[in-house]
Amino acid sequence: MHYKAIYLLIAYIFVEFMIADSPIIQQHYQKSLSLEVLEGDFITEKEYGKYLYENPRGISCRVCHGEYGEGTILATYKHRGKEKELHAPNITGLDIKEFKAKVNNAQGVMPKYYLTDSEIEAIYEYIAK
């Protein structure tokens, strides 16, 4: 049994649901909650990235950005008599620094996820293939 993984999962759930409104506590626990659970044969970083991409905080990246981040058309609509499209961009060509900035500074219809750096890096590794 992977006690370290279970401990980190319990700590993560505690931070996420019990004390999510405290920025100071979030910072402390985000530093201690890392991809250490990926050691051994528990789960690979790619699998973790896929899991996060599919459902990071209840809103899937895949729904808007496509199966592997290639981007999609979210909606079509008319504005002043002209057909318009709302796009989710292709995110596969971003470097890690730009990817982190986009995730952390969500704009428009992009939701704010409050992901740790290690979570963002795992998602990046998954879509970078």
Furnish the topology, listing elements before pairings:
Layout (H helix, E strand, L loop, with lengths): L2 H16 L4 H10 L12 H10 L6 H5 L6 E8 L2 E7 L7 H9 L12 H12 L1
Antiparallel strand pairs: 1-2
Helix pairs in contact: 1-2, 3-6, 5-6
Strand order of the largest sheet: 1-2
Number of helical elements: 6
Proportion in β-strands: 5-15%
The major pleated sheet works out as: 2 strands, antiparallel
- Give helix % range: 40-55%
Cα gyration radius (Å): 17 Å
Secondary-structure element string: HHHHEEHH
N→C terminal distance: 30 Å
Inertia-based shape: elongated
Q: Any key phrases for this structure?
A:
129 residues, mainly alpha
Any overview of this molecule?
It contains six helices and two strands, in the order ααααββαα. It has a two-stranded antiparallel sheet with strand order 1-2. It starts with a helix and ends with a helix. A hairpin with a 2-residue loop joins β1 (about 70-80) and β2. Helices cover about 50% and strands about 10% of the residues. α1 packs antiparallel against α2 (about 25-30), α3 (about 45-55) packs across α6 (about 115-129) and α5 (about 95-105) packs across α6. The longest helix has 16 residues, at about 5-20.
Q: Can you give me a brief rundown of this structure?
A:
The protein has 6 helices and 2 strands; from the N terminus they run ααααββαα. Helix 1 packs antiparallel against helix 2 (23-32), helix 3 (45-54) packs across helix 6 (117-128) and helix 5 (96-104) crosses helix 6 (117-128). The protein is mainly alpha-helical and 129 residues long.
